[in-house]
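Sorry, explain these tokens?

***
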Amino acid sequence: MFVYADELSIYIFDVGSASQVIRYLAPIPLIVGFREISTSILWAQEIRKNPFLGILSGIACSIIVQYILVAIPGFGYKGAAIAILLLEVVASVWNIKVLRLKKVNLKMMVKPLLCDITFGICILLVMAISSHSVNILGLWQFLYISVLFLMVTGVYIYLRCIRKLL
């Protein structure tokens, strides 16, 4: 999302001005993914109340921040993006706190997570360099790069799951 924000802005909103907001929202899938995984872990441990309280506190913080930031002239979209990020970060941090209280070993998850993040960044860099895009990509070129990225990451995830099973 960060690399192709200009293209996404044109294809989704039909304006180029939304690209900066899309860049702000680029980490959202990673944060939401972590929140969902940590929520699933907590639910599997029969802890259902704490993830709900985390998302509720995230919503409350987000509403307050949106009320303040969106009202500032020229800060509308940026304020909304910051509030959405805050919602997810607060909920994720809440889940981390609950997991630490339950003594889940997060240290064992750090090395595989760093490997996955490194792989993802390398793939994104290769895709960005290979596209040689100075101006807006064509729709078919954008779709081709997106499908190629999803295939490579899908194979990587598949191989990671196979390795875990062996």
Observations:
- The mean pLDDT is 81.
- The chain has two domains: 1-104, 105-166.
- The CA atoms of residues 130 and 145 lie 9 Å apart.
- The first helix runs from residue 5 to 13.
